[in-house]
Amino acid sequence: MTIHATHSAPEPHRHGEVQGRKAGVVIASTRAAAGIYDDETGPVITDWLTEHGFEVFPAMVVPDGEPVGAAIRALLTQRPAVVITSGGTGLSPDDRTPEVTLPLLDREIPGIMEAIRRAGAAKTPLAALSRGYAGAAKSTFIVNLPGSPKGVMDGLAVLDPVIGHLCDQLEGGHGH
After folding, report:
1. Alpha-carbon distance 109 to 80, whole Å?
2. Region (Disordered): which ranges (predicted)?
3. pLDDT bucket at 173, cuts 50 / 70 / 90
4. Quick one: DSSP state of residue 104?
5. Considering only CA atoms, which of 153, 166, 148, 130 is closest in space to residue 27?
6. What burial letters (b/e) apply to 99-112, b meaning 16+ CB within 10 Å?
């Protein structure tokens, strides 16, 4: 009698389940908010969140600056697990997303932004110019991604393997 073993690739190790968790998206773009051009990053982020099982509020496209902070604060009243912003992280005078995000955070998670910038820098040296924060506002994870579709995709690739575990921990889970 011969026994044949079949070997298949192991399933990827995933921490946390996000089903049923809510998420918000804030796009910082004065021109997109004015209808001068279409937002290209909101759909990318919304699709990624949906694919990961989040219930996503409609993306909010707002002018750069304080309207971004107001949009994040409005989302926080809905107690989402995640808020992802895109845009306003450069060096132009109206790029103020980090400045309006930081006061809303109870705790920073610097390793996330370090990893996002590192992932971007592997593709373009301009990633080093992107500013932004990642952190927690109570049990909500907030992260500032760049305003370009490629920069957003790089950031989402960094979040991909950790988002469920991150949400679990912010909600009080202690699994490792």
Report:
1. 17
2. 1-20
3. confident
4. G
5. 148
6. ebbeebbeeebeeb
Place of tokens 């991604």: 145
33, 34, 35, 36: CA torsion to nearest 10: -110
The two beta strands, 140-145 and 134-137, are antiparallel
Name the residue type at position 65: G
Domains and CATH numbers, the chain: 24-168 (3.40.980.10)
Q: Is the pTM of this model over 0.85?
A: yes
Rounded Cα gap, residues 149 and 116, in angstroms: 14
* Residues written for the chain: 176
pLDDT band at 58 (very low <50, low <70, confident <90, very high): very high
What one-letter code names the amino acid at 67? P
- Identify whether the C-beta of residue 116 lies closer than 8 Å to the C-beta of residue 154: yes
The confidence score (pLDDT) of residue 70 equals: 98
Q: How many of the other CB atoms lie within 10 Å of CB of 140?
A: 25
Angstrom distance (rounded) from CA 168 to CA 27 = 25
